[in-house]
Amino acid sequence: MRPDKGINGRIDPVALITKYYPPESLAYEILVEHSRVVTAKALAAAEAAGHLSPDVVFIQEAAMLHDIGIFLTDAPGLGCFGDEEYICHGYLGRELLEKEGLPVHALVCERHTGVGLSIADIEKHDLPLPKRDMLPVSLEEKIICYADKFFSKRIESLSVEKSLEKVRAEIGRYGEENLRRFEELHRLFSR
Length: 191
Fold this sequence. Notes:
By secondary structure, the protein is mainly α. A hairpin with a 4-residue loop joins β1 (74-75) and β2. Helix content is 52%, strand content 2%. Residues 1-7 have low confidence and may be disordered. The relative contact order is 0.14. It has a single domain, classed as Hypothetical protein af1432 (Orthogonal Bundle). It is globular and about 40 Å long. Strands 1-2 form a two-stranded antiparallel sheet.
Protein backbone atom coordinates (compact mmCIF):
# COMPACT_ATOMS: atom_id res chain seq x y z
CA MET A 1 0.00 0.00 0.00
CA ARG A 2 1.31 3.46 -0.91
CA PRO A 3 1.94 5.72 2.10
CA ASP A 4 -0.65 8.23 0.85
CA LYS A 5 -3.44 5.62 0.71
CA GLY A 6 -5.60 4.90 3.70
CA ILE A 7 -7.22 1.59 4.62
CA ASN A 8 -10.18 2.16 2.28
CA GLY A 9 -7.97 3.08 -0.68
CA ARG A 10 -8.71 6.76 -0.14
CA ILE A 11 -5.89 9.21 -0.14
CA ASP A 12 -4.45 10.12 3.24
CA PRO A 13 -3.55 13.77 2.59
CA VAL A 14 -1.66 14.24 5.86
CA ALA A 15 0.52 11.20 5.14
CA LEU A 16 1.31 12.64 1.71
CA ILE A 17 2.08 16.07 3.20
CA THR A 18 4.38 14.38 5.74
CA LYS A 19 6.33 12.86 2.85
CA TYR A 20 7.44 16.40 1.87
CA TYR A 21 7.19 18.37 5.15
CA PRO A 22 8.83 17.38 8.45
CA PRO A 23 5.97 17.32 11.02
CA GLU A 24 7.97 19.47 13.44
CA SER A 25 8.49 22.24 10.86
CA LEU A 26 6.75 25.60 10.71
CA ALA A 27 5.81 24.93 7.08
CA TYR A 28 4.03 21.71 8.10
CA GLU A 29 2.16 23.44 10.93
CA ILE A 30 1.00 26.26 8.68
CA LEU A 31 0.13 24.05 5.71
CA VAL A 32 -1.86 21.50 7.69
CA GLU A 33 -3.83 24.05 9.72
CA HIS A 34 -4.53 26.23 6.68
CA SER A 35 -5.62 23.18 4.72
CA ARG A 36 -7.91 22.00 7.52
CA VAL A 37 -9.81 25.29 7.72
CA VAL A 38 -10.03 25.54 3.93
CA THR A 39 -11.35 21.97 3.84
CA ALA A 40 -14.04 22.79 6.40
CA LYS A 41 -15.09 25.88 4.42
CA ALA A 42 -15.05 23.88 1.18
CA LEU A 43 -17.30 21.21 2.69
CA ALA A 44 -19.74 23.91 3.82
CA ALA A 45 -19.69 25.36 0.29
CA ALA A 46 -20.27 21.87 -1.13
CA GLU A 47 -23.27 21.48 1.15
CA ALA A 48 -24.64 24.83 -0.04
CA ALA A 49 -24.26 23.53 -3.60
CA GLY A 50 -25.56 20.07 -2.77
CA HIS A 51 -28.07 20.21 -5.60
CA LEU A 52 -25.06 20.14 -7.98
CA SER A 53 -23.81 16.85 -6.43
CA PRO A 54 -20.20 17.77 -5.64
CA ASP A 55 -17.81 14.92 -4.83
CA VAL A 56 -17.22 15.57 -1.13
CA VAL A 57 -14.63 12.81 -0.73
CA PHE A 58 -12.55 14.35 -3.49
CA ILE A 59 -13.05 17.82 -1.94
CA GLN A 60 -11.78 16.57 1.43
CA GLU A 61 -8.65 15.14 -0.17
CA ALA A 62 -7.88 17.89 -2.68
CA ALA A 63 -8.56 20.76 -0.27
CA MET A 64 -6.00 19.29 2.12
CA LEU A 65 -3.46 19.08 -0.73
CA HIS A 66 -4.16 22.33 -2.61
CA ASP A 67 -1.06 24.14 -1.25
CA ILE A 68 1.35 21.19 -1.10
CA GLY A 69 3.79 23.02 -3.41
CA ILE A 70 4.59 25.90 -1.05
CA PHE A 71 7.79 24.29 0.26
CA LEU A 72 9.30 24.72 -3.21
CA THR A 73 8.95 28.50 -2.95
CA ASP A 74 10.92 31.22 -1.21
CA ALA A 75 8.52 32.16 1.59
CA PRO A 76 10.58 32.30 4.81
CA GLY A 77 7.60 33.58 6.83
CA LEU A 78 5.93 30.25 6.08
CA GLY A 79 9.06 28.24 6.81
CA CYS A 80 9.58 27.61 3.09
CA PHE A 81 13.05 28.05 1.60
CA GLY A 82 12.71 26.91 -2.00
CA ASP A 83 13.96 28.65 -5.12
CA GLU A 84 10.72 29.74 -6.80
CA GLU A 85 8.47 32.75 -6.27
CA TYR A 86 5.44 32.08 -4.09
CA ILE A 87 3.03 32.57 -7.01
CA CYS A 88 4.52 29.37 -8.49
CA HIS A 89 3.28 27.11 -5.67
CA GLY A 90 0.16 26.12 -7.59
CA TYR A 91 1.78 24.76 -10.71
CA LEU A 92 4.62 23.27 -8.65
CA GLY A 93 2.05 21.46 -6.52
CA ARG A 94 0.44 20.21 -9.71
CA GLU A 95 3.75 18.76 -10.90
CA LEU A 96 4.33 17.13 -7.52
CA LEU A 97 0.88 15.51 -7.35
CA GLU A 98 1.11 14.34 -10.96
CA LYS A 99 4.31 12.51 -10.01
CA GLU A 100 2.37 10.98 -7.10
CA GLY A 101 -0.20 9.64 -9.56
CA LEU A 102 -2.91 12.14 -8.58
CA PRO A 103 -3.58 14.08 -11.80
CA VAL A 104 -7.07 15.31 -10.89
CA HIS A 105 -5.98 16.48 -7.43
CA ALA A 106 -3.01 18.13 -9.16
CA LEU A 107 -5.32 20.38 -11.18
CA VAL A 108 -6.76 21.81 -7.96
CA CYS A 109 -3.25 22.91 -6.94
CA GLU A 110 -2.70 24.75 -10.19
CA ARG A 111 -6.16 26.29 -10.50
CA HIS A 112 -6.82 27.63 -6.99
CA THR A 113 -4.45 30.65 -7.03
CA GLY A 114 -6.39 33.90 -6.78
CA VAL A 115 -9.72 33.12 -8.42
CA GLY A 116 -7.78 31.29 -11.06
CA LEU A 117 -5.36 32.82 -13.51
CA SER A 118 -6.02 33.26 -17.20
CA ILE A 119 -3.30 33.46 -19.81
CA ALA A 120 -4.18 37.16 -20.05
CA ASP A 121 -3.59 37.57 -16.27
CA ILE A 122 -0.24 35.77 -16.52
CA GLU A 123 0.91 37.89 -19.45
CA LYS A 124 -0.47 41.20 -18.15
CA HIS A 125 1.35 40.83 -14.82
CA ASP A 126 4.39 39.09 -16.35
CA LEU A 127 4.04 36.22 -13.88
CA PRO A 128 6.74 33.52 -13.80
CA LEU A 129 4.19 30.84 -14.70
CA PRO A 130 3.58 28.54 -17.66
CA LYS A 131 1.53 30.37 -20.29
CA ARG A 132 -1.74 28.45 -19.94
CA ASP A 133 -5.13 29.04 -18.39
CA MET A 134 -5.12 28.13 -14.72
CA LEU A 135 -8.79 28.77 -14.06
CA PRO A 136 -10.89 26.38 -11.98
CA VAL A 137 -13.01 24.24 -14.27
CA SER A 138 -14.71 21.47 -12.30
CA LEU A 139 -17.27 22.14 -9.59
CA GLU A 140 -14.87 20.77 -6.98
CA GLU A 141 -12.00 22.99 -8.20
CA LYS A 142 -14.28 26.02 -7.96
CA ILE A 143 -15.41 25.08 -4.44
CA ILE A 144 -11.83 24.73 -3.16
CA CYS A 145 -10.70 27.92 -4.91
CA TYR A 146 -13.60 29.79 -3.29
CA ALA A 147 -12.98 28.39 0.19
CA ASP A 148 -9.27 29.20 0.05
CA LYS A 149 -9.97 32.92 -0.37
CA PHE A 150 -11.29 33.15 3.20
CA PHE A 151 -8.08 32.13 4.99
CA SER A 152 -4.52 33.40 5.05
CA LYS A 153 -1.38 31.52 5.99
CA ARG A 154 -0.33 34.10 8.56
CA ILE A 155 0.62 32.10 11.65
CA GLU A 156 -1.22 34.45 14.02
CA SER A 157 -4.54 34.11 12.16
CA LEU A 158 -4.51 30.72 10.44
CA SER A 159 -7.97 29.71 11.59
CA VAL A 160 -9.56 33.16 11.48
CA GLU A 161 -12.02 33.44 8.61
CA LYS A 162 -11.83 36.69 6.66
CA SER A 163 -15.03 38.66 6.23
CA LEU A 164 -16.70 38.67 2.84
CA GLU A 165 -15.92 42.39 2.58
CA LYS A 166 -12.21 41.78 3.17
CA VAL A 167 -12.11 38.97 0.58
CA ARG A 168 -13.86 41.19 -1.96
CA ALA A 169 -11.41 44.05 -1.26
CA GLU A 170 -8.37 41.77 -1.64
CA ILE A 171 -9.61 40.27 -4.90
CA GLY A 172 -10.78 43.63 -6.20
CA ARG A 173 -7.17 44.87 -6.14
CA TYR A 174 -6.52 42.52 -9.06
CA GLY A 175 -9.24 43.97 -11.27
CA GLU A 176 -12.90 43.81 -12.08
CA GLU A 177 -12.65 40.51 -13.96
CA ASN A 178 -11.24 38.77 -10.90
CA LEU A 179 -13.92 40.27 -8.69
CA ARG A 180 -16.57 39.13 -11.18
CA ARG A 181 -15.18 35.58 -11.02
CA PHE A 182 -15.29 35.65 -7.23
CA GLU A 183 -18.87 36.95 -7.16
CA GLU A 184 -19.91 34.13 -9.46
CA LEU A 185 -18.36 31.61 -7.06
CA HIS A 186 -19.94 33.35 -4.07
CA ARG A 187 -23.41 33.11 -5.63
CA LEU A 188 -22.93 29.37 -6.16
CA PHE A 189 -21.42 28.45 -2.79
CA SER A 190 -22.80 30.74 -0.10
CA ARG A 191 -26.05 30.34 1.78
